[in-house]
């Protein structure tokens, strides 16, 4: 069975600090996808990134960067120079496309509430 | 604009009163699914559909029904809602290639309260 763990329930930082959100996953499969979604206070889910299990290159998009380490089953998300607008709940998710019984559902972590204070 | 829409966005109802939450997508996606979000549990899949007239149970299907009569619509039906179905509900859709889905895009959410 798949599992995603986000051990940090809440993180509070001051604006301009860097912050890393941890994500650890479990799966028996060699082919899978990892995702990060952002849920701002307004409630919608915003897609941030999708990573294939065969692609271990780190990715940077503006102030966001992702560190995928297959050896430790982790897919951590770093926000550099955080801003108040980054305040949101962030979800890490796992999808196993080879499992025909799962309908390629996303297995979500519990989410990390990030609060960026001015 | 490509989007997933849900209605209503907010609903307060009473135990046992049948309700339907609609979901529609305009991206011609084959795959659609419903999730519920509860504190400390993240999101869990209720039902999914690979295509028209093809639906299947997710992780928490009890107390829910779905139908997929048209490609763009995937309503969630609660025949006899109970207070433990109070939750935030999300519809999602994506392209489907074989059994692999592309990135799932989510609707704005429906906050349901069952008294």
Task: Summarize the topology.
The complex is a heterodimer of chains A (118) and B (115).
Chain A: E1 3-5, E2 10-14, E3 19-21, E4 24-26, E5 33-39, E6 46-52, E7 59-61, E8 64-69, E9 74-79, E10 88-95, E11 106-108, E12 112-117
Parallel strand pairs in A: 2-12
Antiparallel strand pairs in A: 1-4, 3-9, 5-6, 5-10, 7-8, 8-9, 10-11, 10-12
Chain B: E1 4-7, E2 10-13, E3 19-25, E4 31-38, E5 42-51, E6 54-57, E7 65-66, E8 76-78, E9 87-94, E10 96-97, E11 100-101, E12 105-106, E13 110-114
Parallel strand pairs in B: 2-13
Antiparallel strand pairs in B: 1-3, 3-8, 4-5, 4-9, 5-6, 7-8, 9-12, 9-13, 10-11
Would you give an account of this structure?
The complex is a heterodimer of chains A (118) and B (115). In chain A, the strands form three sheets. In chain A, strands 2, 5, 6, 10, 11 and 12 form a six-stranded mixed sheet that branches. Chain A has a four-stranded antiparallel sheet with strand order 3-9-8-7, with no helix packed on it. In chain A, strands 1-4 form a two-stranded antiparallel sheet. Chain A is built from no helices and twelve strands. Chain A is mainly β. Chain B has 115 residues and is mostly beta strands. Chain B is 0% helix and 53% strand. Chain B is built from no helices and 13 strands. Chain B has strands spanning 4-7, 10-13, 19-25, 31-38, 42-51, 54-57, 65-66, 76-78, 87-94, 96-97, 100-101, 105-106, 110-114. In chain B, strands 2, 4, 5, 6, 9, 12 and 13 form a seven-stranded mixed sheet that branches. In chain B, strands 1-3-8-7 form a four-stranded antiparallel sheet, with no helix packed on it. A two-stranded antiparallel ribbon of chain B has the order 10-11. In chain B, strand 10 and strand 11 form a beta hairpin. Chain B is globular and about 35 Å long. Chain B starts with a strand and ends with a strand. The model of chain B has no long low-confidence stretch (mean pLDDT 92). The chains are: A mainly beta (118), B mainly beta (115). The A-B interface holds A 4, 35, 37, 43-45, 47, 50, 91, 93, 95, 97-100, 103-106, 108-111 and B 31, 33, 35, 40-45, 48, 50, 56, 58-59, 88, 90, 92, 96, 98-101, 103-109, 111.
